[in-house]
């Protein structure tokens, strides 16, 4: 370590301030932002194809607007990040994008067309223990239909999920699985978990069922019963069901049979035979039959959209069909095991959420895409949408004479006025360090003007791309200085034309 670096480290240590990222949060740099933006644009275009329109809601909502769907009613900071306003009202960072939509629709009910198709994307926040792939801030992309009571809206949502994944290049590598909370509620009612008094235990059961793909039959059985301890030693309290109750729940999860999906309508009929003794479950199965009929008529085979009774969405506010998009290609998990990639999107019908703010019920359905997880999937499949576009850095105008910085600023303004990305070097280093800076910026061209060039009305244009290629074939520093590869002089008036010619030589017009 140099003396200067040592002094800096000593000063930082004395200040007591340590640069560190909070747990559960990540920084993102330009390349990832640009690549992810391409994916988001594809999603947006697909949603608009279905007639959805954009909506933006704030990060902060009144905590009461999230209501009983908070992880812990008695502690506003449990599960969500909350704080008190100056009038002592509790506010929370949004937990998802659905509750803010419900508030917006209720607040603007008479001004918006219904059914109301909207999409939103943005960050949401969870005050939960972070872990591998589990963040406290992450991005979602949602699509919802509010005001459509029939399950045709749910079928439409499933088809939109499928078409979105197709357009992202994942055709043949996913399946949209559909279930119905009425089926789940009906089965749970038969084991004594119906009604408001059992709402908390019922939610614990649903969350346990939602772990079926991750933990399998025995893991879910533990979560349905006394609880489960994970590899780190953390214990998750179970739902407290007895053996007979747990068997009934497990039977429903296993009702989907093998991976060889049966014929679409015969399979739904088999569900009706097995679980249709309960009136609520029967209604849910009949809705699943309608969805199957609609997606079948639209040409979506069982390889793309199918009924699967193991699908459970963990939130209590779902009231009807629930659905999720599962990617089927194999990946290696943290334990070195080969598993499916898993779910990247999910949602369902939530007819009671908007109605909390109004006297009449307002039907609604929709789903959310986990942006980061979907982006990881595209990276694994080698999708070009997950690659940062090959975009050159800005042209850098070097500053050799600080007393003439206005002259250099004029050169930069001329380039920008012609639509060429350009920046003025604003540091305090000399020419050699400025060239290194241009290289780190990925700059294709450096503009150099000393006092002699200024007096002559000229500039030096250095083609950094060609220069880097030439450098690989030049053996000595003396040879380099003699050759001055890829560098030429031109009148200031020709700067834009000559820079454009260099850029066209190395990059496409849309770079």
Automatic annotation (TrEMBL):
| Oligomer and partners | Homodimer.
Question: What reaction is this protein's catalytic activity?
Answer: tRNA(His) + L-histidine + ATP = L-histidyl-tRNA(His) + AMP + diphosphate + H(+)
Localized where? Cytoplasm
**Annotated InterPro entries:** aa-tRNA-synth_II, aa-tRNA-synth_II/BPL/LPL, Anticodon-bd, Anticodon-bd_dom_sf, His-tRNA-ligase, HisRS-like_core, HisRS/HisZ, HisRS_anticodon
Q: Which HAMAP family match?
A: His_tRNA_synth (MF_00127)
Q: Which gene encodes it?
A: hisS
Q: What class of enzyme is it?
A: ligase
The organism of origin for this protein: Methylobacterium cerastii
CDD domains with a match to the protein in the record: HisRS-like_core, HisRS_anticodon
For this UniProt entry, the molecular function terms from Gene Ontology, in alphabetical order, are: ligase activity
Principal place of residence: cytoplasm
Give the UniProt family note: Belongs to the class-II aminoacyl-tRNA synthetase family.
**Chain ranges of the Aminoacyl-transfer RNA synthetases class-II family profile domain:** 38-389
Which keywords does this chain's UniProt record carry? Aminoacyl-tRNA synthetase, ATP-binding, Cytoplasm, Ligase, Nucleotide-binding, Protein biosynthesis
Query: So what EC number does this one have?
Result: 6.1.1.21
Tell me what this protein is called. Answer: Histidine--tRNA ligase
SUPFAM superfamilies per record: Class II aaRS ABD-related, Class II aaRS and biotin synthetases
Q: Which domain of life is it from?
A: Bacteria
| Pfam entry (one) | tRNA-synt_His
**Keyword hit for Amino-acid biosynthesis:** no
